[in-house]
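R.M. (postdoc): so does anyone remember the format we settled on? I'll just put the structure tokens first.
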């Protein structure tokens, strides 16, 4: 808790009345633990971060629905997080979390899209065609088809509308196909 005690029940009551500092207090007290819980459910840090962010949005919007007679504040908060995490799993097409330990993904998360493209030395034609795309579109292709981000994850990461991302990817793939022929 970083040395600060937060009365979560009071913080939820304050959130319900529009006090943003109360939400910050909840985040300071529980954010790191919530990320750990989301990571155990989702197995991928970007998805876990999305789940925590979404959970805090839901906590802010629905704090008035918290009822201390039905359970503790901490239980309510983690139920919101768990439900959001499970929704993300369903949206990603995974019915159950995998048993693969974290960190054993095929591609290292530390690798940038540009480094991934540079690794394609045995596919010079593809590399040449990718380099002809504008940088943002090249990054979108690499994040989607090499790093495995869904269209929704990519839209969130780039801060762009989902429709724009889908159009970019479709047009970029057509451009790549023409270039490779």
């Amino acid at each position: 808790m970083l040395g600060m005690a937060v009365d979560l029940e009071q913080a939820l009551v304050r959130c319900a009345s529009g006090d943003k500092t109360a939400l910050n207090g909840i985040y300071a007290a529980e954010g790191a633990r919530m990320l750990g819980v989301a990571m155990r459910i989702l197995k991928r840090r970007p998805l876990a971060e999305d789940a925590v962010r979404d959970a805090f949005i839901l906590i802010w919007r629905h704090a008035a629905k918290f009822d201390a007679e039905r359970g503790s504040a901490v239980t309510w908060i983690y139920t919101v997080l768990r439900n959001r995490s499970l929704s993300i799993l369903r949206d990603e097409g995974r019915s159950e979390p995998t048993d693969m330990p974290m960190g054993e993904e095929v591609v290292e998360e530390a690798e940038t899209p540009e480094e991934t493209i540079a690794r394609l030395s045995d596919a010079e034609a593809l590399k040449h065609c990718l380099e002809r795309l504008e940088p943002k579109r090249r990054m979108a292709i690499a994040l989607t088809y090499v790093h495995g981000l869904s269209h929704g994850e990519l839209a969130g990461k780039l801060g762009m509308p989902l429709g724009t991302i889908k159009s970019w990817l479709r047009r970029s793939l057509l451009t790549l196909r023409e270039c490779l022929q």
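R.M.: ...and that's the designed sequence above, right after the tokens. Also worth knowing: The chain has nine helices and no strands. The longest helix spans residues 20-42.
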